[in-house]
Amino acid sequence: MKKDQSNMINTLLEILLVSTRLGFTSFGGPVAHLGYFHEEYIRRRKWMDEKSYADLVALCQFLPGPASSQVGIGIGVMRAGVLGGITSFIGFTLPSVIALIVFANILNELNIGDAGWIHGLKIVAVAVVAHAIVGMAQKLTPDTKRKTIALFALISTLLWQTAFTQVGVILISGFIGYLLYKQHSESDDSRIHFPISRRLAIICLSLFFGLLFILPIAREISPLNWIAMFDSFYRSGSLVFGGGHVVLPLLEREFVPTGWMSEEAFLAGYGAAQAVPGPLFTFAAYLGAVIDGWKGGLIATIAIFLPAFLLILGTLPFWDSLRRNPKIKGALMGVNAAVVGILISAFYHPIFTSSILEPIDFVFAALLFSMLVYWKLPAWVIVVIGAIGGSLMSLL
Which InterPro entries match (predicted)? Predict the structure, then answer.
């Protein structure tokens, strides 16, 4: 018994050390993160075989939430059960959470509204989100039907800018996708097995949906600000298909129009989030810290990642049957197409409208976009150049 406990502790420490190192060094966004995971966990340490890793990635692409973080959690679960998943998540996420909370606390002490470097970071956001749109549109809207769904999502979310609009668009697009693509099928004979019981999975799924309905009610009847903040971050983390960039419009509409923070502070943090390694969802740590210091940062981080954790644990035992169901695949194709439209809507407002004020701003955004897309410079380099360029332009 003691030997088993010792082995478990050693395994958890190994997971923590490896995932923390990845948390400090994994720049470049979700696709890059998956490459880092493959190199470290699969090729070097052989914690999973190639096919199991590919199946795990497919599952995490299927679910809402931060795909790379969910893959990391899944690898930890495969290695050491639920504790392994928690340990892997903490190691990969904590470095960027700490960095962004520190950044938020610094900005809280400064008057950032007129700073040139802040304007530069806002232009960085233009380049980064434009890059995300191009890549996602090519992958998720390859045919006219899905392009039309994306256009519907764009029009709806731009003309009626509420959180309920986005939820409705996602649900309607999923139904349209189900109708249009329910006969869509691809051959897939692979199998994947995870050390999670169906009982635990059902508990996690019940908790996921229960919180989604209970938190808004608790928010209305409770005077506590942290419950309202937890609800906003949890709901945003629950409704994001397509990666970290899509969480931007959900969070922006939760916190800027309601007066929790200024648009300048929001976009400055989004630019800074590009400069740190790890998942983009840790942007929530910055927002929470702006609202309520380091405690707010921790609450926001837990709230926005909790749906991803509950979903990965809740769906692992059922994934084999789910991914072979063409109707579910069709609904997901519709949802993914809507994500593109939502992202374009967010790109126009608030990102483009608040960042590109003069021709020189557009020129600088085009330059940063080219550096990112064509010259393949790392994201953190783009952020540094954006901050310096913004400072120089303010002197002109």
Answer: Chr_Tranpt_l_chain (IPR014047), Chromate_transpt (IPR003370)
Q: How far apart are the first and last CA of the chain?
A: 70
Contacts of 336 (CB under 8 A, 6+ apart): 140, 146, 241, 242
DSSP 3-state of 187: coil
Q: Which residues contact 387 (CB under 8 A, 6 or more apart)?
A: 117, 120, 121, 124, 271
Strands (DSSP E) found in 60-105: none
Give the separation between CA 332 and CA 174, rounded to whole angstroms: 6
Mean pLDDT computed over 270-278: 76
Q: How far apart are CA 383 and CA 352, in angstroms?
A: 17
Closest CA to 352 of 361, 339, 342: 361
Cα gap 371→379, rounded to integer Å: 9
Dihedral sign, Cα of residue 351, residue 353, residue 358, residue 362: positive
> What is the token pair recorded at 243?
């990666």
Sign of CA dihedral 105, 110, 113, 114: negative
- The C-alpha atoms of residue 259 and residue 254 are separated, in whole angstroms, by 9
Amino acid, res. 74: G
State yes or no: pLDDT of 356 exceeds 80. Answer: yes
Cα–Cα distance, 160 to 150 (Å, whole number) = 15
Q: What sections of 197-274 are H helices per DSSP?
A: 198-221, 225-238, 247-255, 263-273
Tens-digit pLDDT profile for residues 288-347 = 998 988 899 999 999 999 999 999 999 888 876 766 677 777 887 888 788 788 778 877
- The per-residue pLDDT for range 171-212, each reduced to its tens digit, is 899 899 989 987 765 555 555 566 778 899 999 999 999 998
**Highest-scoring range by mean pLDDT, 16-20, 160-164, 277-281, 332-336:** 16-20
Write down the mean pLDDT value for the chain.
Answer: 83
- Residue with more model confidence, 113 or 115: 115
Strand blocks (E) in the chain: none
State how many domains the chain has: 1
Q: How far apart are CA 169 and CA 249, in angstroms?
A: 13
Identify the CA nearest to 239 among candidates 272, 280, 209.
209
